[in-house]
Amino acid sequence: MRIAVVDDDQHLAELLRIWLEESGHECAYFPSGVEFTRVLRRESYDLVLMDWIMPGMDGEKVLRWMQEQSITDLPVIFLTQKTGEDDIARVLNLGADDYITKPVRQKELLARINAVARRALPQSQREVIDIPPYRIDLSSHSLYCNGDMIKLTQKEFELVVFLFKNMGRLLSRGHILSSVWGHGNEFNTRTVDTHISRIRKKLDLIPENGWRLSAIYHQGYRLEQIDQDEMRVGQA
Questions:
Q1: For residues 179 and 162, is the Cβ–Cβ distance under 8 A?
Q2: Which residue range forms the structural domain that includes residue 177?
Q3: Are residues 13 and 115 in the same domain?
Q4: Are 14 and 103 found together in one domain?
């Protein structure tokens, strides 16, 4: 997963980065809530580990900002020294998915990340993604539309899987690059644009067929399924 760590304690952040990368995750570090919200306008992540108490914009303010920006599909785990029942209840009621008390312990951290990921992204555990008219078989790397196989390159298939597993989410080009190609923003983002264009054409991901694969200016892409009412309005 692509995980953002937001904490003004650089020593702890470095330790978290080591633990996360050893477990196969990609880690981005932000020393303040302000810097994280600035980057979150154009980047996307699978999960956020965020300190509750930070100077300037603390974790609670960041969480409220995310809700105001309608960023509600990004799981957040709070890191906190607060252990009072009222404090924990308040932050969970605000929308945090879980919390970890400091000092952070490696096994607990990884276990809680995995638990939150299973709840937030349950489709990632499936061997078959079945969203009519598409059926994606992860074990055989096959994609079918209305029963007919669609020929894809390996990277096209991996990109399709990533988009369908994250339907409805705005995914930055950097997020797509690191998840599908294993490269970050330093890699040519035109690669993403070219492959998006190909799979949009091969899968007919167009509003007339009930799908929208949108390019969001300066941000990335979002795959959405359009309901029948919206399709009728668009065709009127």
A1: yes
A2: 125-235
A3: yes
A4: yes
